[in-house]
Amino acid sequence: MTGENKNVIIILLMLALFTGATIEISEGSVYVGIILFAAGAVLITQIHLSESTALKGSGIYLLTGLFIVIADLLYNYSRNSDLGTLDTMVFFLGISLIGCGVKNPQTRRMGEFGAYISGVFIVLFLIFYSLFGSLNIDFVHNFDHYFILLPTVAIMKLAGMPLEVIATETVRLSGAEEMTIVIGGPCSGLYSMFLLIGIVVGYSRIEKMDMRKTLYLSGFTIAVAYLSNLVRVIILYITAYLYGQETMMMVHTHVGWIIFAVVAGGIMYLMDLKR
Questions:
Q1: Which of 127, 160, 236, 262 is the most exposed place for a label (fewest CB within 10 A)?
Q2: 47: how many CB neighbours lie within 10 A of its CB?
Q3: Which ranges of the chain would DSSP assign to H, the alpha helix?
Q4: Domain residue limits at 106
Q5: 2-57 pLDDT, tens per residue?
Q6: Total domain count for the chain?
Q7: What is the pTM of this model?
């Protein structure tokens, strides 16, 4: 197995674990999420990137990373709040910066990679969720309604499924049981899209990819992330229709990060081909 192929497999597993950890912490089991996160951190050290791209080890990265991790944990503890997706990525950023500050060159390179992924996610999250919200720009709800809910409902109606739109992000489904399904929040697929963009940016900057190729892959990534999320929502509709809401919620917790891992692995493979 070549180094590039090994990288793709390891990154695929790592991203599956990190995304699974994020979803488990916010929607499933915190303990399972912590285990998945720890396993993903171990895999990071096994990825081999170009030798010339590592950041120089510096105490400032180490101290900044420690501060971010401790501040995030103390903030959530003081407010008695659960760790959410943004908290997980802030924590990931802190761990990545700590990696940038240690002596091991491979750990520094992966710390830089992780810092790009988490940093891009945090910036995009703050723009589309926090900034737009403060400016009363209802981007997320409109995106959920016009780009996720309506297209998936139209597809399933063509297949004969009894779906009815009853609110901006809500549909009524008559199948194994009568239920309402909310297509919003994580169902928008924006979280996965942000992560994938961060992967493209991080990998392309570390491996010194041409800017034109980076922009091409970024556009391709957004399109693939969007279509993959439509597939995920359709899978949830079908599961709910055949087996009921409880089974759908169980599938909802796991199917998203599994699809994400497959998509991310494919994108990493393409980036290896285009270096």
A1: 160
A2: 18
A3: 3-27, 30-44, 59-78, 85-100, 105-125, 132-134, 139-143, 150-158, 190-206, 211-243, 245-273
A4: 3-273
A5: 444 555 566 666 666 776 676 666 666 667 777 777 777 677 666 665 554 445 54
A6: 1
A7: 0.81
